[in-house]
Amino acid sequence: MNRKISFIIFIVFTAIVIYIIEYGIKTYDMRFYSGKDNGLAKQFESICILSTIYFIIMSKQKRLLNGLFGLLVGIITGVVCYFVLSFLGIFGLLYHILSCLVFIIVFHGIEKLKKNNTTFIK
Q1: Fewer Cβ neighbours under 10 Å: the N or C end of the chain?
Q2: pLDDT value for 119
Q3: Residues of 3-32 as b/e, b for ≥16 C-beta within 10 angstroms?
């Protein structure tokens, strides 16, 4: 499948997932709460899963390895974005959206670095 089509489908899927999670949090659905976290655990979980899926569907080769790397990037992205936004006093929907944007940017940045790194080892 074309990468542009995969990207558009992923963005629509991500928007639906974010909407469902935010709706569940706003309506105080207890499936989205783990104690007094205001749904942060579900948001973090979805960031990790979405990052893994994105790295798998957008990679051209070594999909399993890229999926594991995507999980690691999702965890790091979720933690870093949480600390940055908590320092600014911002929580909720912006955390979810910003974390998703960051792991997408990280994927394409890594891909660009791989493409520009040409070695002439014979």
Answers
A1: C
A2: 56
A3: eeeeeeebeeebeebbeebbebbeeeeeeb
What's the pLDDT tens digit per position in 75-120? 999 999 999 998 888 878 889 999 999 999 999 898 888 877 755 4
Domain that holds residue 21: 3-116
Q: What is the pLDDT of residues 17-72, one digit of tens each?
A: 999 999 988 888 888 877 777 888 889 999 999 999 999 999 888 888 889 999 99
Domain count, the chain: 1
Cβ 74 vs Cβ 103: under 8 Å: yes
Query: Quick check: is 121 in a domain?
Result: no
The answer to the question of residue 58 being in a domain is yes
Q: Is residue 122 part of a domain?
A: no
Taking the C-alpha atoms of residue 82 and residue 43, their distance in angstroms, rounded to an integer, is 11
State how far the Cα of 70 lies from the Cα of 53, in Å rounded to an integer: 8
Which pLDDT value is given to residue 122? 43
User: Which among 113, 116, 104 has a CA at the least distance from the CA of 57?
Assistant: 104
Specify if 81 maps to a domain: yes
